[in-house]
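Aim 2 progress update. The chain analyzed this quarter is reproduced below.
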Amino acid sequence: MKFLLNILEKTKKDLFAPGKPLEKAFYAFDAADSFFFSPSHVTHGTVHVRDSIDTKRYMSMVIMALLPPLLFGIYNTGYQAMLATGGPADLVSCFIEGLKWVLPLIFISYAVGGTWEAIFAVTRKHPINEGFLVTGLLFPLVLPPTLPLWQAAIGISFGVVIAKEVFGGTGMNILNPALMARAFCFFSYPASMSGDSVWVAITRDTKVLDGYSGATALGVALGVKSGASVAAEPVSLLASHGFTFEKLAMGFVPGSIGETSAVACFIGFIVLLISGVGNYRSTVGCVVGAVGMALVFNLMATDSMHGLFKMPPHYHLVLGGFAFGAVYMATDPVSSAATNLGKWIYGILIGVICVLIRTVNPAYPESMMLAILFMNEFAPLIDYYVVKAKNQRRSLRHA
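Predicted structure tokens:
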């Protein structure tokens, strides 16, 4: 590694230093240098340091925590494709097939989004922040595996430029860039994200596709896509379509690449907690809010209401992208609440709003994205009143 370091340092000095031919591209080169080694600019003086975690280590641990849903998502994508085509459903075959669909999306996300990051870094003359390593992986994990690559490219461009760079770059954005990129694709290309042009219910006798799905679990529970009456019990209705709680929790169902497995997301949550990178308050708050809102709807439910009003609370935790959003999106340190009490309030409201949108407005059954983006905008306000209340209590104690 010292040999590589010497080459990079010599190249930087000869080509990218001030006054050299490639001076304007210094920060693009510096990003590659920092990827392999420590940043060239570090603090040497006496500062307030709590631990040794810098941005690079922080983002690296988040990437490690994303590996469980990523690896399972690759396998499940191949598994769903094999179910459609009648191909071999062994572990290796499913994983290889899944790689064919997932790797291009990850490549496009990093290549296009990274290019935008480099353009803004060179223009503004500041280092490329490691935060995009996480955003570039989060985005493909919340996409269906069959989304056209050009749409993914436009989506990540919107997320990086409009949701992040126009606010000033990393640390200045008020909305989660990966979720904003998904929201752009969701509203701009609804057919590709969840409609008939991609996720088509087929029979093996009539057509062979690379990937397919029937009604989603949320659609079945609603009782609309399945053709069931509004009075149908959601648990039995899901079971009749093969969506048992165990299957939903494990993630062997069609859906976005990284969102289907609540178990894989929970493993990632444990990694974040053990490493000290994650904060449990927002995630646990999401669970508390979702369970509480689901219980309220259970008490309100009548025979004339659709299935989601009667859905047991624990099912909401494994349906759709709730688990992935609660673990990886709601906990974004930039766009979420910063105070401890604020994180509880922020997380609980996300869980409440998620179940509220799912149940009351079934046009958007996958509501975790909307709930998190909505609360991103209120996170500064929550922190403001939490800090204000704390200062008022402190003033009374010293009065």
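The two ends are 60 Å apart (CA to CA). Residues 218-398 form one domain. These observations will guide the mutagenesis experiments scheduled for the next reporting period.
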